[in-house]
Design brief:
280 residues, alpha/beta, TIM Barrel, 15% strand, globular
Length: 280
């Protein structure tokens, strides 16, 4: 399918310094690994979403271009390197995400917490958002992450429940909702967030139903964007959703009580995360 005229990706500007810092610290970003179309815009600000726990995932979601295989052992120095890179980049808002590590007993929760604490040690005034996997629904793993006191807890449901077998075969919709509701129970003062990507075959009513479920789970903010096929091996785009429909979803979400809703074709979970936080 040909890209519609409303999906315009900005050319990279000033990304060299950002990439140089990341490479010198031996760090990965989801921006690069997932081939995000906004990479140039974000790197030029600069901002980046750090991807910890390695660059190999134990799951194989149909929408994601991150390599799926058996990961390497944890890099114990990674939390410190993330913090130092964020400091070198002068970040005031940092997003920390990861691959899914089902091979680890705690899913990497302790490593997440150590990274958050390292950032807060070196950058005490920086706002920290974590975007985590589901940790197989492990309540204690979630407590471990939230115990490090991130400012925002993000976990994406990604798509409607009917499409999970096709899009996220190793995940579970109800489990993801429970992760969000448990996060709000454990740390009610922390902003909770989730995201959806459209164009995989979902219906309008199904999206609205997911928004209702997210709100019922205590989710505070939501992102809704267009799925774009990152490589030929990934799932095809079934439909390009018009900006008008995205605007409609945004209004519906706000009417439901979400404190902030970002909904547009090129919206991504971590894009303009600082703006979302400041305007929630």
């Amino acid at each position: 399918m040909r890209l519609p005229e409303w999906i315009k990706v900005k050319s990279p500007m000033g990304v060299h310094d950002t990439k140089q810092i990341l490479r010198s610290r031996r760090l990965s970003t989801v921006c690069e690994e997932a081939r995000c179309p906004n990479q140039g815009e974000c790197f030029s600000k600069p901002t980046a979403t750090f991807m910890i726990l390695g660059s190999v995932c134990t799951r194989n979601c149909g929408f994601c271009s991150v390599e799926s295989s058996m990961p390497k052992p944890l890099d114990e120095d990674e939390p410190e390197r993330v913090a130092l890179a964020a400091k070198e980049m002068g970040l005031k808002y940092i997003v920390i995400t990861s691959v899914t590590r089902d091979d680890l007993k705690d899913g990497g929760a302790k490593h997440f917490a150590e990274t958050v604490r390292a950032v807060k040690k070196h950058l005490p005034d920086t706002t920290v958002e974590v975007l985590t996997p589901d940790f197989k629904g492990d309540y204690n793993a979630l407590k471990t992450v939230l115990g490090s006191m991130p400012d925002v807890y993000n976990h994406n449901v990604e798509t409607v429940p009917r499409l999970y077998f096709y899009v996220r075969p190793q995940a579970d919709y109800a489990r993801s909702l429970n992760v969000l509701s448990n996060a709000k129970t454990i740390a009610p003062e922390i902003t909770t967030k989730s995201g959806l990507m459209l164009g995989l075959g979902e219906t309008f009513d199904e999206v609205v139903s997911v928004l209702k479920d997210l709100r019922s789970s205590g989710c505070d903010t939501v992102t809704i964007g267009q799925y774009l096929m990152p490589s030929k091996k990934n799932l095809p785009v079934k439909e390009y959703i018009s900006p008008e429909i995205f605007n409609e979803y945004r209004e519906i979400a706000l009417d439901m009580g979400f404190r902030y809703a970002a909904s547009a074709p090129l919206v991504r979970s971590s894009m303009n995360a600082e703006e979302m936080y400041n305007n929630r």
